[in-house]
Amino acid sequence: MPNTPDPATAPTKAVWPAVAVPGQPGAPHSIPEAAGAEPKASPSRPASAAIGPRTQGDQVLADLAAQIERYVVLPSPEAVTAVTLWVAATHLQTVWQHAPRLAVVGPAKRCGKSRLLDVITETVHDPLITVNASAAAIFRSIGEADPPTLLVDEVDTIFGSAKVAEKNEELRGLLNAGFQKSRYTLRVAGPNHEVVRFHTFAMAALAGIGDLPDTIMDRSVVMRMRRRRNGEKVSEFRAFRDTPALHAVRDQLAAWLRPRGKEAIGLMPVPMPVEDRAADTWEPLVIVADLAGGDWPERARTACRAMTAHEAALDQDNSLHTRILVDIRRVFAACDNAAALPTRTLLAMLNRDEEAPWAGLGTQGVCPRRLQILLKPYDINSSTRRFPDGTQAKGFTRAQFMDAWDRYCPPEAPPEPSGA
């Protein structure tokens, strides 16, 4: 009789599941566009980065990043890294001292904001999603032992205009307070009118058109979404079909991170590319990257540097108080860093810059009174001075600005080489 192979030892052909779920037999490291398709290299992770054995954390983060990129076109590889690490960090919320917000904003409709929130909802820890809930309903839903992840879509209906935002100051205060652990809101409740302390600490993702209030943006990892170009393709998201794969990644994140809470508490992310509030916001993401190993620590710090620098540049452009300092520094530099300049010279050179906002502030551009108002927060005032040509006039010294330039302005760019 011919030898019959033993079924227990006979080689078997791998069968792809209908939905490629990480961890199932035959599933690739990065989930493909469709069942049976060849895995594609992710734009956010070069193919060479996958060479060599992966840790559990490295693998599950790679799977999560692949799922996000399957449905959403994010503005940069750094943005993919940031979203991936933010989602993972929600599974260790009780460990963190700060709960970073994820601000998913865009200039118009159809930029992928809601689609990104769909994917996030199925992968974060204990999602609590709402469109227009009251602050009271939200803080009554947040517990101390295991806070949910707050997800708010169409947030522009809450903060979109000054009049509407004024009515929602309580919610803005709640989102600001919930950034840091042990910040409570107090309410009088019950038949005995007792003071009750409600927890506010919870990570939150907020999606909408236009920027959020400055105090929330300052506590956020900011995703500036854009419409897809012609040729940029993503898979359609269908909850019934696609949720199982996302839940599989979510469960793997929890299985990897939950046992590492004590380890995460003891980690100090060194080096940290930023300081102060930005460091508070990015620290949970960088710690998760350090736990994962592989190339994630480097990617996390690169994303942190690039994205915070981008927001700082936008803040400089949007805030007249900061912009005036930067432009006055340029005026002094153009005047060979003179020890002092007359106010009229300073104003003339500011209003002459066609790309600056000063010429449009009035019929004649920025005036002496408006200049004093802009400089008042820095305690910089003009006074009558004698200048080298023997004239006396109102003016400023360069020394008056040195402290403010050092504190509030980005470092001066080095001069370009003469052959540039």
UniProtKB/TrEMBL annotation:
The DUF3631 domain is annotated at: 224-408
Q: Which InterPro entries match?
A: DUF3631
Superkingdom of source: Bacteria
Region Disordered, residue ranges: 1-54
Q: Where is the composition biased (Low complexity)?
A: 14-28, 37-50
Q: Where are its TM segments located? A: none
Supply the name of the protein: DUF3631 domain-containing protein
Recorded source organism is Streptomyces polychromogenes
